[in-house]
Amino acid sequence: MNKSSVIILIIAAVVFAGLGFVVGQVMAAGSNPGSADDPVVSESYVDKLVGDRASALQTQIDDIMAILDGGSNPPDNGDEPDDPDNSTTDSQTVTVTGDSVNIRATASTSASIVTTVSSGTVLNYLGQSSQSDGVWYNVKTSGGATGWIRSDFCSSPR
Fold first, then answer.
1. Which domain holds residue 96?
2. How far is it, in rounded angstroms, from Cα 6 to Cα 124?
């Protein structure tokens, strides 16, 4: 290789390095992921946010219902069409059977954890929901936290 070939290679390397730097700066000047121009949000973030807000709203609904009902629901007179066995769910409870069970913000294993309870803990039963991964119970702890627990980690409502 002669001297002129080496000089041409050095000049070409400098030109390409400069070009690469300029192209990189132009690309970086575009929208950044997560910026207002290009918002990027993961599914777990959305699940946590929705779960947290749903849990807070459920707590507010429970508080408002308690105020409206004067602290308890009126006695069931048996003519409610949605209550065929003439029972009320206000006094129903479930007992945790797992060692360390998560109560979640929504009925999903990917939802944020509201609290964790141990075996033998008694929870107020508020309702249930059937999901693709099983039946979930909506529960309230003695401390007032509400959330969802998988039915296979606790007793049936009583």
1. 46-75+88-153
2. 82
Average pLDDT, the chain: 78
Residue 81 lies in a domain: no
Within this chain, do residues 141 and 70 fall inside the same structural domain, yes or no?
yes
Task: Tell me how far CA of residue 134 lies from CA of 107, 110, 120, in angstroms.
Answer: 9, 14, 21
Structure tokens belonging to residue 18 = 């400069």
Q: What mean pLDDT is predicted for residues 103-117?
A: 92
Please compute the mean of the pLDDT values over residues 108-137 and round it to a whole number: 92
| Two structure tokens written together for 118 | 């141990």
C-alpha separations of 32 from 35, 39, 41, 45, 114 in Å: 5, 8, 13, 18, 33
Q: How far apart are CA 158 and CA 63, in angstroms?
A: 23
What CA–CA distance (Å, rounded) separates 63 from 73?
13
What count of residues does the chain have? 158
